[in-house]
Amino acid sequence: MTGPPLTPVPASGPAALSPGALPLPEDEVRATLKGDAWRRLRRDPMAIVGAVLVVGFVGVALAAPLIAPYSPTETPGLGQVTPTTIPGPSSEHWLGLDNLGRDEFSRIVWGARQSLVVGVVSLLLGATVGIVLGLLAGAVGGWVDVVVMRVTDVMLAVPGLLFAIGVAALLGASLLSVMIAIAVINVPIFARLLRGSMLSVRESDYVVATRSLGISPGRVVFGHVLPNSLSPVLVQGTLTLATAIVDAAALAFLGLSGTDPAVPEWGRMLAETQRFLASAPHLAIFPGLAIVAAALGFTLLGESLREALDPKYRR
Amino acid sequence: MSAVAGQVAGPGEPGAPLLEVRDLGVSFLRRGRPPVRAVEGVSFTVEAGRTVGLVGESGSGKSVTALSIMGLLPRRGVATAGDVRLAGESLVGLPDAALREIRGRDVAMVFQDPMSSLNPVVTVGLQLTEVLRRHRGLSRPAAREAGVALLDRVGIPDSRRRMSSFPHQLSGGMRQRALLAMAVACRPRLLIADEPTTALDVTIQAQILELLAELVRDAGTALLLITHDLGVVAGVCDEVHVMYSGRIVESASRRDLFRAPRHPYTHGLLGSIPRLDTPRGTRLEAIPGSPTQVLAWERGCAFQPRCGHALDVCAERSPELVDTGRHRLRCHNPVGDPVGARS
Hints:
The complex is a heterodimer.
Chain A: H1 33-43, H2 45-62, H3 64-67, H4 104-140, H5 142-157, H6 160-171, H7 175-202, H8 205-211, H9 217-229, H10 231-253, H11 266-272, H12 282-309
Helix pairs in contact in A: 1-12, 2-4, 2-12, 4-5, 4-7, 4-10, 4-12, 5-7, 6-7, 7-9, 7-10, 8-9, 10-11, 10-12, 11-12
Chain B: H1 2-9, E1 19-30, E2 33-46, E3 51-55, H2 62-70, E4 78-86, E5 89-90, H3 96-102, E6 107-110, H4 124-136, H5 140-153, H6 159-162, H7 172-184, E7 190-194, H8 202-219, E8 222-227, H9 230-236, E9 239-244, E10 247-253, H10 254-259, H11 264-271, E11 322-323, E12 327-329
Parallel strand pairs in B: 3-8, 3-9, 6-7, 7-8
Antiparallel strand pairs in B: 1-2, 1-4, 4-5, 9-10, 10-12, 11-12
Helix pairs in contact in B: 4-5, 4-7, 5-7, 7-8
């Protein structure tokens, strides 16, 4: 028995990249910006590592009931746990038991689900509000722009996590308030990013050319400016998933995500077992590794995506 | 919508030229500093079916003039003066919605750089049909057919398939052809071409100019051609206006301008072009110095510091635009006059 399959690696992989593939005739290549970026992504080892981690994380989260041998509340090792001895990894319990005799591996697998939900929901919430605000600021301009940008300035002036702690504390300790808090701190980031991107695209030759043809401002914004402004937002979205997962763990560690034991949360698992750090280090190491792996996956993927989408970044 | 369309598409004042620019001035406002006067006192007309050249080096105000005619300059931070009339109807002060009706339908523009003037994430066909649907009210399939016909018209081979190409799949010449197709899609009465060939290879330049001339001839479109290339002017223009530092310094028919340039600046421009009959090894005559960035007409002639023909008066008094019969001229001491005769 080797290590536990934390991240099931797809069986194909590098073999799919045949080195001798002939270039297709020019007519056959439906080369688009996206296609171009996609080809560069597939050749980037960082992107592949990131994608494997992300696919593993999402797969584990979705298939948690199939992968986890126990439910998160079951206590199969109840008899083996004493206040001074908490058994570590064994063939029966791959990542050991926690202080209440629950299977740590199962808890981490179920925890992936929480992290994914928190990450995705807070990203969607924050990005949606941020994109709407950024679109308003970038498309309407004038005082709307000034108001939106000053508000984001104020929000960005407060350290993100501190701001999130404030929001979550205000809303009361629950998973929902953690998601809202993380969404809130991401709103100004998305708003600012989209606005800046739109401002530069708005001055581009093709937008002036489109305006010179009498196309209405609405069509110019939605048909020409916005589609060309979205790639930094896409990159930021991927990176935000990583920070959202870490932030969620931090807020949970601070006890802001509620105390329902049926909903294991990696950050909370760290917090609840820190007293046993000396006698049972596996209770700190494995949830910590899970957080790192998930965040690293999205970060690597996001950075590679940035390089693939931004021609100026190419080396 | 139709009311505005009727006004502009109608005959307007009888005898009015298609485009009349009168005393156009454009200043860019700066906070806490005097505004930059990019264009001042520019007047000219373009008659239907004629080709008029606007010539000058970078920064002389050619493109600003064009954008100002199109109403494409930002409203904030820019002060404009004078009047622009299309078929007798003033375009200055028209609301944006009315201007948008005119743009693309009555007046269209071709830009300098075909590489950056097409939206990179949208197919050529979509950008082309967008104009047709906007101004000719065509349905999607009808616009597509019309778009294919337009691409054929501008000489893009395999036009049906090119409709679904993205700009980066086309060469520079093809892109400029596609942009020309968009500009002439609604048979505008005035086409403004801002350095349409500058970014292209010489061989492609000739093709595009030929196409431009052909489109203009066939449709009776008036063409305002903005360029710094006197070779282009010699090829296609009926009349030429030479701009320097935001003002017109010499206007003449092509024939008169090339045969007998009167302004020392025009003279210098023509002298700096290599000719086939100049002996090898002869130095090309360059105009010394470079144009001043700030409009320098307050004290004397803006060209005076670079002018080999300058008199004392040139540094003291700004010359007025004077009609000399065959030329309109802004100079105290034009080439071809005995020195000092006119001061």
